[in-house]
Design brief:
Layout: H1 6-26, H2 28-40, E1 45-47, H3 53-59, E2 67-71, H4 79-91, E3 94-97, H5 100-108, E4 116-118, E5 141-146, H6 157-167, E6 173-178, H7 189-196, H8 201-207, E7 214-218, H9 224-228, E8 232-235, H10 245-252, E9 257-260, E10 273-276, H11 281-293, H12 295-312, H13 315-332
Parallel strand pairs: 1-2, 2-3, 3-4, 5-6, 5-8, 6-7, 8-9, 9-10
Helix pairs in contact: 3-4, 6-11, 10-12
């Protein structure tokens, strides 16, 4: 049986490569304009995503202006990823990684920058936001999930957690799902069967008898209102990557985070949330039950997360870090 987690990645890479080649060919005039601007107007050019690697590689031999680049994603292990990281490394004078996680993955894929720095993404202090009006503010322990469905994000894992909670007799937990819960027909097992019958993740939860544990909001334009209505956030990722905008904003809002993986700079088990080295449904259900029964412990975890984000993701400090890199790279050119 083929590796279902690898096939979507390969397909996406092929489609992206074809699309990028087409757009690159069409953008000849823009590239010439960029080259001229690099020579005449700018001291340094920063590429804000590794997806711009081919453009940086084209510009590299055509300008003396230093080039820096942000590396923002953990690329899957494919030949395309290997080629991409080497292209980015060769084109850039300095690489900026959003966490150590992305830096380790970059090296594992075969990339090594001339100079490298980790600068965490910023998280502005949370606003005084009213809770989402559709979320019932009852006695249940409310756990937010801010993501559209994908196999990699693992949102269906929460259905199995709800089944465990139901078996334990715990009725005091509600998963608040903000995002599009569309399922694709190629998903394995019952998920795929639900999709082929026209169903989504809400239908899958209903088929497992745990609808009462979920509130599906669909797309939410202001996800901070969902965080304001909840006690914690869950990210049951199959990528074992405990990181992302949803996590840092939840921590900034004072919510503990429940997720999976080894990287603990932000979500640290027993300190700022629940971090499982690998997803274990029974253990996670038990940890959720413990937090639901001890709200003071949940608030202590959330406060520790808020303090950590205030230090690591301070906008003024991280902007100063990036400015120092730009100045030192420019001076060295």
């Amino acid at each position: 049986m083929p590796n279902i987690s690898a096939l979507p990645s390969l397909s996406r890479n092929l489609l992206a490569l074809v699309g990028y080649a087409r757009d690159f060919a069409r953008a000849r005039a823009f590239r010439e304009e960029l080259r001229a601007a690099a020579e005449r107007r700018f001291d340094l050019i920063h590429f804000n995503h590794e997806g711009l690697g081919p453009l940086a590689a084209w510009l590299r031999p055509r300008t003396r202006t230093p080039l820096t680049m942000h590396i923002r994603t953990n690329l899957y292990e494919t030949p395309f990823a290997t080629a991409q990281v080497r292209l980015c490394a060769a084109a850039s004078d300095h690489l900026v990684f959003i966490t150590e996680n992305e830096q380790v993955t970059f090296h594992r894929r075969g990339g090594q920058g001339r100079a490298e720095t980790v600068i965490y993404n910023i998280a502005p202090p949370p606003l005084d936001t009213a809770p989402h009006p559709a979320v019932p503010l009852d006695a249940r322990f409310r756990i937010a999930c801010l993501a559209n469905y994908s196999w990699y994000r693992g949102l269906d894992r929460l259905v199995t957690v709800a089944e465990c909670l139901k078996a334990m007799g715990r009725k005091d937990v509600l998963f608040v799902m903000a995002g599009t819960m569309h399922l694709t027909r190629s998903l394995p097992g019952a998920l795929g069967r639900t999709a082929r019958q026209g169903g989504d993740l809400a239908d899958f939860a209903a088929s497992r008898g745990v609808s009462d544990y979920f509130l599906f909001l669909g797309h939410v334009a202001q996800p901070e209102t969902v965080l304001a209505a909840c006690h914690a956030l869950s990210k049951p990722t199959r990528e074992d990557n405990p990181w992302g905008r949803d996590i840092i904003e939840a921590l900034a809002a004072g919510l503990p985070v429940l997720t999976c993986g080894q990287y603990d700079r932000f979500v640290e088990d027993g300190v700022t949330g629940v971090l499982q080295p690998a997803f274990d449904v029974d253990t996670l259900a038990q940890r959720i039950a413990e937090l639901a029964g001890d709200r003071d412990s949940a608030r202590i975890l959330g406060q520790a997360g808020r303090e950590r984000i205030a230090t690591l993701c301070d906008g003024t400090g991280r902007a100063a870090d990036l400015l120092r890199i730009w100045r030192s790279t420019w001076r060295a050119a």
